[in-house]
Amino acid sequence: MIDIHTHILPGVDDGAKTNDESLKMLEDLHKDGVTDVFLTPHIGRLRGFGASRDIYVQKLHYLREAAASRSLDINLHLGAEIDYSPDFVAEIDTYVTMNDTKTLLVDFTVHAEDIEDALYEAKLRGYTLIIAHPERTTQLSLETLMTLKRQGALIQTTASSHLGIGERRVRRRALKLLSLGLIDFIASDLHRPLSGLPLMRACRARIMKKTTPSTTNALFEDNARRLLLEKP
Ligand SMILES: [Fe+2]
Asked: How much of the chain is helix, strand and coil, in % rounded to 5?
């Protein structure tokens, strides 16, 4: 599986705090059946998240070496989870993208005004937006999500939402998105070690019962593979 949304990069947001915690999370995901991980720290001035790209790259290189020295066979890719804000379009060329493609993972939970205009502008500049876990974003109605999808946005839901960990309405919304065929990726959005619990594997088994094998493969691997093959 390919996990496109994690907070494993240490000391840069509300995810992993130390290198050891990061490595534990990578070990957990590897055991859970994940071969490729996108490290997607929160970037958002309103919440006080964000560091320079050099810092992210430095930490990425450290984790790659540390994982290799522990014979941990997992591929790491840099990305980011951008908080949507009124400055989104003006700042779009400065953001860390997914694996240096023109795809951005965007969180609309902090701010969700004028999204259709922003998506249009982003598209004009060659960007594709992945909407992070809209099942948790009450500001985004189902109708808005369907419009955004028609306009070319992609949708990522979180594994724990499908497993019913947390609020019931979030699970219902995730199920609805699945049944309407609106989801492109299912990711962990991991902030802490899994402590031996299966997450992606358990979610994949759950999704397999609700849809076809080819759709399941698309959600957990094939669609994300395109981000690894796409050239900027
Ligand atoms: Fe996240």
From this structure: 45, 15, 35
